[in-house]
Amino acid sequence: MSSSTNLPLSQTPQTLFASIDIGTNSFKLLIIRAYPTGKFHTITRLKQPVVLGRDFFSSSDSPPRISTHSQSRSLDSLLYFKTVIDSHRIDREHTRAVATQAVREADNQREFIECVKEKTGFEVDVLSGEDEARFAYLGVLQFLPVFEKLVLCVDIGGGSTEFVIGKEGKIVFCESLKLGHVSLSEKFVTSGGEFDILKMRECVRMVVEESGLVEKVKRCGFEVAVGSSGTIRAIEKAVFKGYCQYFVDNVGLLGDCRRDWRLSREDLKGVVERLLCRGAEGESVRRERFFKRRSEFIVAGAVLLEEIFGLLGIEEMEVSGYGLGEGIIAERLGMVFDGYDLNANARWRSVVRLAMRFNGKKRIKSAAQCASIAKDIFEGLRKCDGLDSDQAKLIASLDEKDLEYLEAACLLHNIGLFISKKGYHKQSYRIVMNGDQLYGYSAEEIKLIALLAKYHRKKLPKFGHASSKDFSEEKFRILCAIMRVSVNLQQNEWLNVQEIKILHSHESFKLVIGEEKDLPFLPGTPQPTAEDIGAELRLELEYFKSVFKQELLIVLVPSGSSTDSNDNIACERDVNH
Q1: Torsion-angle region of residue 436: left (phi > 0), alpha (psi -120 to 50) or beta?
Q2: Could you say which of 29, 294, 442, 528 has the lowest number of CB atoms within 10 Å?
Q3: Angle made by CA atoms 86, 90, 95, in degrees to the nearest 5
Q4: Under 8 Å between Cβ of 48 and 26
Q5: What share of the chain is helix, strand, coil (3-state, %, to 5)?
Q6: Helices 443-454, 400-412: inter-axial angle, 10-degree rounding
């Protein structure tokens, strides 16, 4: 099981969704947390190597059937998935199970589907090849900034390969061919355990030629080719980690975020040549160690992809970390949330990628924590009662898009440290403004994010910096006030910024924060007092008051104390008095 990094996202409202992909090679469960703005992040990703296709791809003498043994393994995996889904309390309406090529071709398809429903409660939709291609494309749109481009998406599965050309979420052309890494492996494996590569290539070319795929793709054309399957991701990862070299580079935790997520024809050729090094000492062991469970089918998958590159004239392919599962969920989100933006998640990922390009693990963690604090303050202000008419109007102007700008600025505020510690906030501004790496944002939106990153410290912003047709200076000042407080609080190691609550009374706003009690002290070094913390925040608190026309009191309570009401903090210390 793997989970995504918990980078900051809006928390209200939020909903869990699940997709189950009953594939030819493996069964996959994906659980995501989604937001109406279009952003989502992965909660859980599970994979079970059932390999349904092994039952009938190796034999053409009888109708393809899912064996009793495979059916039993399938039920075990699906019951496990059900346990995970139930533990997350995901509504059945937010869960969808689909099956692809193996079940689509199985002679006992109905028997299998009915058995799954009886034993697990899952109603499985058997996708057509065209629907499978469409969902793969929708998944790509959640990962890569290609919404406005004419995209050729290639998805290599265990029993079939889907081709789809789309633009702005609409399908222009799609085709499904019965070519998969499992089916080709089973069909062309020799008695010695090697593969008949020549015949495998001939088979791929024949199927493609008979389908007329090349001519159809040429008629439609495409601006960019994208690969979305696990096989293609594994090959791209092999290039990234230097599989073709003698030593494999074991990159760190954030390595995947620094991947180019692209694959050239020369890169692919190098991987195929390495995989086909027959007789090389230790090569099979090396392959199994690197590709793990996928090693059994990676040769066929790589050869198939190389043929696709050649036949369709692809010189370079972008690689998507998302695919069918995310596409299934994206379609469901469009039904649940009015005005769901298919482009939003890829837009947010461009912010994350820019942050990770210039920051290491430690600075990314700090930036993410800053964004989390800013989100808590932002959401807390929107929930405050008892505001006067001017304050209510001011805060009512904030929406989910403003929160996205604020979180983006927090994630990017320290990227200038990559260049220089002195004046790094100015460098952060220049990188955001001139880097051309934030996808899906207008020029005015990028300017707003860059200005917030610039004015998170040092000089206060002057009038006129954020005025534009889209963003008033007033809104900029609100976000800037929140961000300056958030950055300062994040840098204070004596505070438990996981426990933050904002309250309001007629006299003031109160930001209630837990005190961290378990940090070690150097001998003779006293724990900073509330007054010390207040002094550090003086400039930020004054700016907050100038924006909201009321002071912000920072109140410290012991970590773990309730912060649900003003009554609970009446006897606690605040830094202003």
Answers
A1: left
A2: 442
A3: 105
A4: yes
A5: 50, 15, 35
A6: 50
**Which DSSP helix (H) or strand (E) runs through 570?**
none
Q: Residue 295 burial by CB count (10 A; 0-12/13-18/19+): exposed, middle or buried?
A: middle
- CA dist 535 and 488 (Å) reads 11
Q: How far is the C-alpha of 301 from the C-alpha of 159, rounded, in Å?
A: 11
Least confident of 35-49, 232-246, 508-522: 508-522
pLDDT beyond 80 at 548? yes
Tell me the per-residue pLDDT of 205-246, one tens digit each, with 9 for 90 and over. 999 999 999 999 999 999 999 999 999 999 999 888 888 764
DSSP per-residue codes, 203-252: HHHHHHHHHTHHHHHHHH--SEEEE-SHHHHHHHHHHHTTTTSSS-----
DSSP letter string, 141-197: HTTSS-TTS-EEEEEE-SS-EEEEEEETTEEEEEEEES--HHHHHHHHB-TTS-B-H
8 Å CB contact between 40 and 21: no
Alpha-helical (H) ranges within 415-536 are: 424-434, 443-454, 473-490, 530-536
141-190 confidence digits (pLDDT tens): 999 999 999 999 999 998 899 999 999 999 999 999 999 998 999 889 88
- Predicted confidence at residue 38, as pLDDT, reads 79
| Nearest residue to 323 (alpha-carbon basis) of 148, 154, 465 | 154
pLDDT of residue 54: 75
Among 186-195, 391-400, 453-462, the least confident range: 186-195
**Bond from prior residue into 13 cis (ω within 30 degrees of 0):** yes
331-336 — which CB contacts under 8 Å span 24+ positions?
A: 331/135, 331/138, 332/17, 332/94, 332/96, 333/17, 333/34, 333/38, 333/40, 336/15, 336/34, 336/94
**In angstroms, rounded to a whole number, what is the distance separating the alpha carbons of residues 121 and 82?**
9
User: What is the DSSP code string of 126-148?
Assistant: E--HHHHHHHHHHHHHTTSS-TT
Distance CA 306, CA 300 (A): 10
Q: Which of 59-68, 86-95, 220-229, 381-390 has the lowest mean pLDDT?
A: 59-68
